[in-house]
Amino acid sequence: MKNITYIDAINAALTADLSTEVKDKLTALKEQLVKRNASKSNKPTKTQRENAEIKAQIKDFLTHTLQGLKCGDVATELGISGQKASALLSQMVTAGEVVKRMDKRTALFLLPENDMSDPANS
What is the pTM of this model? Predict the structure, then answer.
């Protein structure tokens, strides 16, 4: 099911049998929402820029391994928390930038081109 936006809800409400005063208030609210949405910028936030830089550092660090590295190794090397390393590595796995392999019960991370378990890289 598609999430309904506030603007969609207002449009639906405006089709109902409402007083002119209520319709005027809803129309004004809709205009405010449209104006607010138009003013939002698509440029990345400060945190997103910082995370992009850390992700580049993670990629650089992972270029030096064929066996893979644990999340804690990445965190220690880059001087970030384990939680931040875990979150960024998960994002990178989802985006296909990094591969996650399980060795017994330990997650190891490596670059796709260094993944020797992938037949395409053999």
Answer: 0.62
